[in-house]
Amino acid sequence: MGERELLLPAEKFPKQRFPLVCDVNSAGSRVRPGTPVNQALLRDLTSGAKSWTLGTEVDDGRTLGEEVADVIVFGTSAARRQKPAAKCCCCCFGDYLSHRAMVPESPACFSRNITGGHSGLTFRPSAERWKADHGIPNPGACTARAPRIAGHLANASGINVEMDQKMLWGGRRGRGNFVAASNRWSAAMPQPNDLSRSLVALDQNSTIIAVVELSQSSWLVGGVVPGIERQPRKKLEPSPERLLAVLHRWRDEAVGAGRTITRIALAFEAGRDGFWLARWLEARGVEAHVIHPSSVAVSREHRRAKTDRLDTELLKRGFLGWLRGERGHCSMVRVPTIAEEDAKRPNRERECLVGERTRIVNRIKSTLARLGIRNFKPTLRKAAERLATVHTPEGMPLPPNVLAELQRDMARLGVVVSQIREIEDARQKGLEQRPDTGPHAMVRLLARIVGVGVETADMLVHEVLSRPLRDRRAVARYAGLTGSPDESGAQRREQGLARAGNARVRRGMIQLAWRFLMFQKDSALARWYRARTADSRIGTRKTMIVALARKLVIALWRFVTTGEPLEGVVLRPAA
């Protein structure tokens, strides 16, 4: 299949080696003709480019955007001439100008062209239009990779591909701004849920920028107000109403200075207060963001000055860089919904209760050990009744104060055990009543793997697997299973796990990795681990179990989101 040039006049479409970027409106739906090119993202890709609009006339008298459901990108073939891809079509999915779309040879070629190969005019044709033009159904459903390609394209490029196989659940959310496919001459394509920088163009003359330093006793809010030379700062009592009133007063001051305010962007660090403030402000028209605390660069001085005022300036500096779309200033935390936060509570409460049960049992055993009693088991069902019959090695009954203390501990242990059982029964009832809902279906699917219990499956689903993570690297980072190298000059050393992710997921995956080796001895991951620890060197098993946990959490993520099976893993029969 040879390549063809796009039929665009040179004066209307300058052949430069960069893609042009289009906006998708806030609802993520139709791009109206006349929508301007996103200037902020365009500046990231090149300088001095013309500002094209979707209403530009083409050679046959029509305008871009009139007959296209969602115009995603349009570019030139100049970059393609610099580095032609072998066995790839020239204009990816379709040629809007001549309606002679070229069919890619394989889903892999199709995915590469759309998301990372060529520039071109890419759009979403209807199923009837595609069938009429080519006499064949939409490509992409002929290989085992089709579900993964479909999920990637439907979310990363906005193209609706008709597939025989579909993603099971847990599709990634968010559409944002889309850019042209990247190659080694163009800028990297931003991901739809990339929280390391803003994908919305910043107009500082019409945007109020504010940051809040939260504490239990007071809030310190600082801002950048258009038309006001000073940068105001206000200390408030912890009250969202007072905060909103300050933002509105700053907006009135900017309007009085002759500026038109169309956007109020506010950010604060994630901490004890959680995410309720962000949701409260979003419901009242304020664009709220939550900054990851460890992503803000601070001074490395031994005794650096630290006050709320200095912390506010640091947050303001990092937030401004993030809004400009620059990387490395700070990263944002995804704000969960109330339902997502509530779904985590049973598992986390059970974890706390299990720890409390262990502490009570250890305290009872320690108290009895001081009297020489070592054969008493507090976890037995009738342990409280046996306390009255316990004697010391000298044949003496328990002292009255010790007996009273142990009885109170046993009563407390009974309450904790009953609460743990109540949480487990409620979870099991929910799995039986709503087995086909997204999280419950994931839990049931994971629990089919021999060696994975319902408790582990529930923790993994609600903590990491149900989140709209970008790729396998994001999964490993969120699980806290990535390394932290220390390289400077000729020095090369590994500091161990970064431990910057979810501690519950990290601890659970390390335990699951050891259990996986026990119950899935013939799986590909278990064979991989045994091959790399065959030398029996000191520390090799401990190091490689972390690598196995990282590979395992990525494999489980693919298993529940795309249906990709784990090689050699034994599954229980479906209930």
**End-to-end CA span:** 49 Å
- What's the rounded overall pLDDT mean? 74
Low-confidence stretches: 1-127, 136-189
Order of strands side by side in the largest beta sheet? 3-2-1-4-5-6
Tell me what the structure shows.
Helix content is 40%, strand content 8%. The protein has 575 residues and is an alpha/beta fold. It contains 17 helices and eight strands. 30% of the residues are buried. It starts with 38 loop residues before the first helix and ends in a 13-residue tail after the last helix. A six-stranded mixed beta sheet has the order 3-2-1-4-5-6, sandwiched between helices. A two-stranded antiparallel ribbon has the order 7-8. Helix 3 (107-117) runs parallel beside helix 5.
Annotate the secondary structure layout.
Elements: H1 39-45, H2 78-82, H3 107-117, H4 127-134, H5 146-156, E1 207-214, E2 219-224, E3 233-236, H6 240-256, E4 263-269, H7 276-282, E5 287-291, H8 308-323, E6 332-333, H9 338-369, H10 383-386, H11 400-433, H12 438-447, H13 454-465, H14 472-478, E7 483-488, E8 491-497, H15 503-519, H16 524-532, H17 540-562
Parallel strand pairs: 1-4, 4-5
Antiparallel strand pairs: 1-2, 2-3, 5-6, 7-8
